[in-house]
Write a structure and sequence with these properties.
Rossmann fold, about 25% strand, binds hypoxanthine
Length: about 280
Amino acid sequence: MNNAYQSQYERVTKCLEIIRSKTDFVPKVAVVLGSGLGDFAEEIDIKATVNYSEIEGFPQSTVPGHKGRFVFGYINDVPVVAMQGRVHFYEGYPISDVVLPVRLMHAMGAEYLFLSNAAGGIGDGFKAGNLMMITDHISTFVPNPLIGPNEEKFGTRFPDMSNVYRKDLQNIIRECAADLKIPLKEGIYIQLSGPSYESPAEIRMCKMLGASAVGMSTVVEAIAANHMGMKVLGVSLITNLAAGISEVPLSHEEVQQAADEAGPRFKALVKAVITKINE
Ligand code: HPA
């Protein structure tokens, strides 16, 4: 038996105890704020915040531009918890740590998980600044977060992944984008480990596999959430064209700049979708 995995449920329970010593807020929707959505917290009628550093045993984010805290509050009347700053596999954490925050937000009461990220665009006609609704994912190139003894309290050993990004929720995202007149791409997101950006050959591979966007997060979180029965939504902000499609070398600054520019559109869409989920 692998004790590290066995202790996951206990770890989540311990983290939850710390959260509960600070706030009794029960969220309905959990939101993971990727680059470009960091200041989404400004849209929330904030009731409480908890810094990751206050939670013993919780992995700490080390990426520049990523804050590390949970924000609890309301979007219109919907109780939400937002993660300002997530943990990435490339920071050196085991994949079970990368998904611990999602497990914790589920333990807090969240039924929905809204995942967002910055991604490189691969799909035909994609441009920097596009928003892409995630309709499916490819996880093959990163470790599966469910490897290890299965913890039945979280979910079943062999969970189905045929409808992770549920069709009814995809329809809500489409409707909200149309109402807001925000053009919306759709496609498959592939998670690679990073932290180096991909080579042009790797991007050609991703394209052959059917991916429209590439990034370094999200899929493992979606798998863990689906394992626990959470309803998952995902939107990528295309911050750049992927390597080999872009004519210029990729840089974190370019990604950050595009994320800042598209931030208001991204925020408006996420806010509208969360409001509509609750109707
Ligand atoms: N590749 C991987 N991750 C990314 C990219 C990219 O081109 N852009 C933003 N995140």
